[in-house]
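Re-run requested by the PI after the first attempt was lost when the workstation crashed. Everything re-entered from the original request form. Ligand of interest: adenosine-5'-triphosphate.
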Amino acid sequence: MGKIICLMGKSSSGKDTIYKNLMEDKSLGLRKLIPYTTRPMREGEQEGVEYHFTDEAGLARLQEEDRVIEIRAYDTVYGVWKYFTVWEEQMNLERESYCLIGTLEAWNAMCQYFGREKMIPVYIEVEDGTRLIRAVERERTQEHPGYEELCRRFLADAKDFSEENLKNAGITRRFENKDMNACLEEIKLFIQKAILI
Ligand SMILES: Nc1ncnc2c1ncn2[C@@H]1O[C@H](COP(=O)(O)OP(=O)(O)OP(=O)(O)O)[C@@H](O)[C@H]1O
């Protein structure tokens, strides 16, 4: 039986890096569950790589087909952008396991949609000071570093991923990303066991 692995964690905890590594490990046989968004494509992005890009009409069609698993709307300075997960016609949960990066909100909605027993949480944690340094270092490499947004996210994450919210979501196990290789090894072992059940 297939499972859905949901990688979660605060900003700069290493989700993206870990996701890429898990996907490259063919022995795990995980499939990507690529999210959808109504936000415009950024330079360097490609349809179907980070996201499937659509618009409000595309979203409405998917909703009519009852294929939207969970959806989040963000009121940005450019207007409302929606991010959502879609049931893909080629998905085969009997045989395949899927992996995605999710928020706690998405996790809760997906537990409702698929059933908790189908869902495997992988919560990644990094000590706050180290995480902030990694976030600043990553931002510094950008042409136009967005330190303000970085600070906003850092504070928002503390609320979104509060101990209470984690507890209510049934997330108890944590994977500490101090050393990437050790963390990856631990996560891979955990996933291998979890998808066997
Ligand atoms: N164990 C580690 N040691 C050192 N640097 C790391 C480690 N893990 C991740 N990083 C670095 O920290 C930064 C944040 O990692 P990454 O982009 O994977 O995080 P993320 O959780 O996807 O962040 P966001 O949610 O903000 O997009 C990257 O520059 C990455 O190279």
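Saved to the shared folder this time. The chain has seven helices and nine strands.
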